[in-house]
Design brief:
CATH topology of the largest domain: FAD/NAD(P)-binding domain
Number of helices: 17
Helix content: 25-40%
Distance between the termini: 16 Å
Strand content: 15-25%
Radius of gyration: 23 Å
Number of domains: 3
Oligomer: single chain
Structural class: alpha+beta
Shape: globular
Number of strands: 18
CATH superfamily of the largest domain: FAD/NAD(P)-binding domain
Largest sheet: 10 strands, mixed
CATH architecture of the largest domain: 3-Layer(bba) Sandwich
Length: about 525
């Protein structure tokens, strides 16, 4: 069967061991872990996969330099453990999907000799906590070396800098590829499918049946289930209250705004970490797939389906770009902007600064509702999605299913497209242009030759959609048939991601092929 909605509905069974609500990073991780443990799994997602927070991150695979600083400064063992776990997960994410995650060099500028020593020690500790990795160790740079590494950086008052390494990823495709891997191993995975209600046992009040609705085909369905995992990120409380209206809200939402500029304003491949803004935040300037990504903000917000970047957020991010770059930009230079809502767990609201989401640790918690037995995974961040899933399944087995089927097997399990593949041979082949071959590898990994073969079966399938861009006409049909794309929004903003990098270019592509999704069901 193919990874499309029609085939997934054909697979729809009368009963499952585990139903996962939510098709973002965490839900995808839970689905893959559970499937590898031998459970019969279904994932239902109200929108497209990773259409909310998981596709609107800062695209970093990192341990969290800021959290390490807070851990040392406050002698906070919990934050230290969180950094340790995240750094080890960073290595796993890079190895399990080398086509979607890669090393990234970042520079931290220093404006005093004390700062240089302070950050040098901090980054040395960061390296040591990470242990053996496939990344280079951090090192100090003088002013001349900085100019060579980051040519657009404003060197005024700089005495030196620290170059260190983290990871960068294609977040939307990473989540999709985890789900594809779970589906290949037997899971049922469906997007644009809404949870309608639960039916609970009259005797135990435990959830025994899930009712859903296909939002595209406008059909209702139901199935029996042994356990339900709520992995809906910022929307966690909605599902919790659907299962048990008496539960208190546990989540706090923070908005992270980003803007995208042309690459010419930040040449080179090295990112910049601004360790402390005037209001105590962290801002990144990141080379990102032919553009430069600037972010992020961290402000308390209300829950919303489609958060839109505000003018004051654009102004804030532009101000810091202009402060640190010799290339000055204006609002008209912004190619795109987006906002992701972070799901922050309110573990200790009494100790958190009033209304300040920066003081809440992005760790996670697994909650089992005593009445309905709904399992909710709350908090966390992209880099730790895998151990969040592992913790969720361990607790679910112990407290809900009362069985230990098998240990977690995801640590050394490549996700879809991440298995062994001769990238150099593919990139140096004579098929198509180098730009298109690189796009195909960085999008599909080891499946790139399969995509080319598919495109060759379609008239004009190996021709590009638009001169100067790498996207093939045949890819549209491939994405519909094999990646469950149901609209141009799915393609432009998540399967390819160009809409989040260049909004005007995304609209231009849509105008060319706007009839392609007229008959999706």
């Amino acid at each position: 069967m193919s990874f499309n909605r029609q085939d997934q509905f054909k697979k729809l069974a009368d009963s499952y061991d585990i139903c996962v609500i939510g098709g973002g990073a965490t839900g995808a991780g839970v689905a893959l872990d559970a499937t590898l443990r031998g459970y019969k799994v279904i994932v239902i997602e109200r929108g497209d996969f990773a259409s909310q927070t998981s596709s609107k991150s800062t695209k970093l695979v990192h341990g969290g330099v800021r959290y390490l600083e807070q851990a040392v400064r406050n002698l906070d063992w919990q934050q230290f453990k969180m950094v340790y776990k995240a750094l080890h997960e960073r290595k796993i994410m890079l190895q399990n999907a080398p086509h979607l995650a890669h090393p990234l060099a970042l520079l931290t500028p220093c404006y005093s000799w004390f700062d240089r020593a302070y950050y040098r020690i901090g980054m040395w500790l960061y390296d040591k906590i990470a242990g053996s990795t496939n990344l280079k160790d951090s090192r100090g740079l003088n002013k001349k070396e900085i100019q060579k590494e980051v040519p657009a950086l404003n060197l005024k008052k700089i005495v030196g800098g620290i170059l260190y390494y983290d990871g960068q990823m294609n977040d939307a495709r990473y989540a999709l590829s985890i789900l594809q891997e779970a589906e290949k191993l037997g899971a049922t995975v469906i997007n644009y499918t809404e949870l309608s209600s639960f039916t609970c046992s009259h005797k135990s009040l435990k959830i025994k049946e899930v009712h859903g609705k296909d939002l595209i085909g406008n059909k209702e369905f139901q199935f029996n289930v042994r356990a339900v995992v709520n992995a809906t990120g910022p929307f966690t409380d909605k599902i919790r209250k659907l299962a048990n209206p008496n539960l208190q809200e546990r989540m706090k939402v923070s908005r992270g705004a980003h803007i995208v500029l042309e690459k010419k304003f930040w040449p080179g491949d090295t990112a910049l970490l601004i360790p402390k803004t005037d209001d105590g935040r962290v801002v990144f300037l990141l080379p990102w797939r032919g553009y430069v990504l600037v972010g992020t903000t961290d402000d308390a917000d209300k829950l919303s389906e489609n958060p839109v970047i505000l003018e004051e957020e654009k102004t804030y991010l532009l101000e810091y770009f202009n402060r640190f770059s010799t290339e000055k930009v204006s609002p008209s230079d912004i190619k795109a902007g987006f906002v992701g809502l972070r799901p922050l767990l309110q573990v200790q609201l009494q100790t958190a600064m009033q209304g300040d989401t920066k003081s809440l640790v992005r760790d996670h918690e697994v909650e089992v509702d005593r009445r309905s037995k709904l399992v909710s995974i709350m908090g966390g961040k992209w880099t730790t999605y895998r151990i969040m899933a592992e913790d969720t399944l361990d607790i679910l087995e112990t407290e809900v299913l009362h069985v230990l089927k098998s240990p977690c097997l995801t640590k050394n399990h490549p996700i879809m497209g991440g298995d062994t593949f001769d990238m150099d041979l593919f990139l140096n082949s004579a098929i198509l242009t180098l730009e298109t071959r690189r796009h195909l590898y960085e999008t599909y990994g080891s499946l790139a030759p399969r995509v080319i073969k598919f495109c060759q079966t379609i008239p004009q399938g190996t021709e590009v959609l638009l001169d100067g861009l790498p996207y093939l006409q045949g890819e549209i049909d491939y994405l519909k048939k094999h990646e469950m794309a149901t609209s141009w929004d799915d393609v432009v903003n998540r399967r390819w991601g160009i809409g989040l990098r260049d909004a005007e270019l995304g609209r231009k592509l849509e105008d060319i092929k706007k009839e392609a999704f007229a008959s999706i069901s």
